[in-house]
Amino acid sequence: MYVEIALISSKTAGMGKNENQIGTFEAKTRLTRLLDRVAAGEQVTITRHGTPIARLVPVRAGGTRQLRDTIAKLKKFSKGHTLGGLKVKDMVSEGRR
Description:
It is a single chain. By secondary structure, the protein is an alpha+beta fold. It has helices at residues 24-29, 31-39, 63-79, 88-96; strands spanning 3-7, 20-23, 44-48, 51-58. The protein has a single domain (1-82), classed as 3-Layer(aba) Sandwich (YefM-like fold), CATH 3.40.1620. 42% of the residues lie in helices and 23% in strands. A four-stranded mixed β-sheet has the order 1-4-3-2.
């Protein structure tokens, strides 16, 4: 079981009325239960004095596989395409001007 913990700011919290919130003390004492809920697909926001500070979210399955597939597709695509004699370094320099 893998769980991703994302730190959030109160500006980007996007707190909805249906979102699960829990205080830091309660989160600490009930961490195992929280992780079970998150593994089942729930998202839980941890608050400190009512201010959101972190969100427990389930990790998306297949993230590594999807990344490898995308890299393979890019490599395959690049074999049939050229820059027509241009150099990437020159194009980068041109873009910085």
